[in-house]
Amino acid sequence: MVNEKELVGIEAAKYVEEGMVVGLGTGSTAHHLIVELGRRVREEGLHFVGVATSVQSAELAKEVGINIQSFNDVKQIDLTIDGTDEFDPELNGIKGGGGAHLIEKIIAVNSDRVIWICDHSKEVAQLGAFPLPVEVIRDASQHLYDSFEVKGYAPSYRLTPAGDKFITDNGNYLIDLHLEKIINASQLAEELIHLVGVVEHGLFLNVADHVIMAKADKIVHFYK
Ligand code: 5RP
Residue ranges per domain, the chain? Predict the structure, then answer.
């Protein structure tokens, strides 16, 4: 059986060119991208600078031989390639299934071009079936949680496999909102980002330029 995540990760690695500064996403699809880019560095002599969107991706990238620099140390990012949890026909999406959406968004909005890579389960007609992650300051978390409950947003804390509250790379908690359907994504994005104590939410609106999706053994492209 075809591994769609691997197929699309390998395909997307072809978009990285000599001398680029490239944002490297997080998650199981981005994992394949990073491994393939490492192969290109070692076997093809490709030179590029990677800017990682998580500690996990930075560690993998270094392991496979990619030159990683911090976002603060590069002038601009030419291209970011990242996974997504959902994308709709306008190429808006929900991200943060791996808890890395804060840095993923910082890197993406500072990139000249953004490509999302995914298996075919991520294509949706309307966003919202995937729980929307909201990264929150720990000291504000319970009050935010309670207010989400009052609004009917069906919150749950992101937990580790051991049952502890998940702590992001930035030292915050995650609250997932089980919304089922998001009717007005831009209104919700505005509302969430203005709540004091919310650091960032997982709605990525007008961020992706191109989605590369694998469906069985086929590659399908969606453009903005
Ligand atoms: C991490 C993310 C990932 O890109 C998203 O969860 C997709 O992950 P995967 O490729 O494992 O399906 O947003 O914060």
Answer: 4-124+205-223, 132-202
